[in-house]
Structures are given as structure tokens and as C-alpha cells.
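Lab notes, practical 5.
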Amino acid sequence: MKKKVLLIITAFIMCLIPCAALAATHDWNGGEGTAPTVTNGDTVNLITPFLGYGVLTVPANATVTITGSVPMTESLGIMLEIGAGAKVEWKAALSLPGASEPATVNVSGGGTLEVVSGGEISTTDGTAIYARGSGTEVYIRSGSTIEGDIVARDGAKFFLDGIPQPKAPDYFDNIAELLAAMPNSGFTAADFEEVDGKFVISEEKAKEVAEIIDLEYRKIVGRWSFETNGWADFLAVLKADEVTGAQLGVRNPKDITLLKINGATSGKLFNYKISDFEDGDFTLLEKDGAIATTINSGTSYDLVVFIKDNGDYDNNKTPGIVVDPLVALHNRSGGSSGGCNSGFGMLSLILPLMACAFVPRKRK
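Output from the prediction step:
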């Protein structure tokens, strides 16, 4: 009996040996034509000097981990062709300049890229992740670092537990350009006013739209106009100018209400979220980037909005142009801060984004 058990254990161990040998670690400099051939369980370690423009193909139903650290370097991005049912777990830190084309990491193939806690994909001025194709999914987990635009095209989807680094955009200082960016909206120049060199929706127009959809308010506390450039179809993650708890006038972030002004006489509410962010959501961050759970009157915060180019919250349906006047308010039925029954702040987020085509180019 003992001999039989020993034979079974030995056979089991012998089976494990070749299975373990299948998993391997490959160094890769990201260069064109240099990507390793990977199988299920393999690890790809990014190394310097990093060349970029290479394509890593992950076969269907395989799981591959990417590790390594590549600091800011003059290089093109890499492409991940992830097969259906396959998954790439991104633990690496890869930072490229804005010259990377079309993005730091480009994903296609119908599989999944998961950027886990501690993973980083960033660019100084451009697109961090560009995903395309039906079935292609990108998960950005809490604790990861994403700096740069994120783009989903042709059926690809993003799922955001973590928040990409919000942009601090520029502002409209020309009323004609502002109106031209919102065709068929019904707005006129009289609906806007100039404040500190920036054009924002007038107090009268904000009150009119709020009253039309039966949202009560107490006072206006701030107004802004945003503009930024990016790829067509990307999810804009943008922050307003710094706001204080006293301005917001509430104790609980969920008592902040954001209203998208569709046009001169209509509006659409944004959704408050602390995870699973998508088009039409907003959240409030502490200055260290953590999600704010309570609001203190003497503390400053970042109000962050998520707007998909050509999505439901985009007033301009031309690919590559996002326009969204917003009003931030606190309903009278909600809580209060410092004894006030309600408070109301206004954002006019105007975001023209330049359309770009997905055309990777080699650097000469």
C-alpha cells in the first residue's frame, strides 16, 4: 500500500515539473520585431534602453504579467495584441513623453488589460492608453497611476476603479469661439459673461435652466470655462479650479449635484460616484488624490468630472470636440454646512478636443 501511494505522489510531482517549466520570464526593450513569444503564465520584464513601437502578442485564453520600470525616455509606445479570453496583468511602470505615438500603451485583440495597484502608464502630454476593438477591455484599479488621456474606440471599454490623473485644462477667453464650439445649442452671447478674463455662463441663464428642471438653490459660488486637446473618442478626466468646503456648502460629497446644461433651456444631471467611473460621472478628491468622504469648510478639494467625447454628456457631436457647460449645486432637500440650508456652485466646463486619427508612425 505504501509503495502504491509513493508511486502516485511521484507521478504527481513529475507532472508538475514540465508544467512549471512552461512559465518563463522574458526581458523586452519594447522594440519593433523584438517581442518575445509568450504562453500562459509567462512574465515580460520591460528593460532599458527602451526602444518602443514593438508588438507583444498574447495568445487566446493566456494570462501574462508585465513588470519592470522604464523612466521617462524618448521613445514610441508599445502595442499589446491580447487575444480573446486572454489577460495582461500590468505591474510595470512605463513613462513616455508626449511624442509617443499613438499612445504609451496601445491595446487591441479582444482581450483584457488590467493595470493593478502599483502599476503605472503615463505620458507628459498625450494619450496614456489607447484601446480599440470589440471585446477589448481595460481595467484601471485603485492604487495604479495613469497620467494622460485614455481612449476607447470601435467597441473597446474602460472600467475605472482608480482615477486617471485629472487634467488641469486651459480656458476660453473668446466668446465667438465658445459659441462656435456648441452648434445647435440655442445659446447666445447674452447667456455668457466674462469673469477674470474667462467666459462663463451667466448667473441668469444658470438660474433659468435650474428652475426649468425644478432644482432649487441658494447662491452661486464659482464659475469656470475649460478647454483641452486630446484624441477623438477619449474619456476626458478633468478637474475644476480648486474648491473649498465652504464654497461647496455641504458636509457629504454625495450632496453635491452637477447639472449638464444641454442647451439654452434644458439640462441633464451627472452621477456622483466613488468607483466604477464612466461618462457622466463626477467625484470629489482630497488634495492627495484620495476620494473625499466628508467635506470640511476650511479644506480645499478637486472636483473631477468624466466626459466621453461624442457621448451622452457631450454637447458637440463632432468627433474630437467635447463641450459641456456644467452647474454645480446643492438641492434644498439635502444636508447643510455651517447651518446653511443649501449652497450652489457653478462650473462651465467647455472642452474642445482636437480629433486625431489612429495612424502609428515610425520615428526616423
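Observations recorded by the TA: The CA atoms of residues 258 and 328 lie 4 Å apart. The chain has two domains: 23-160, 175-351.
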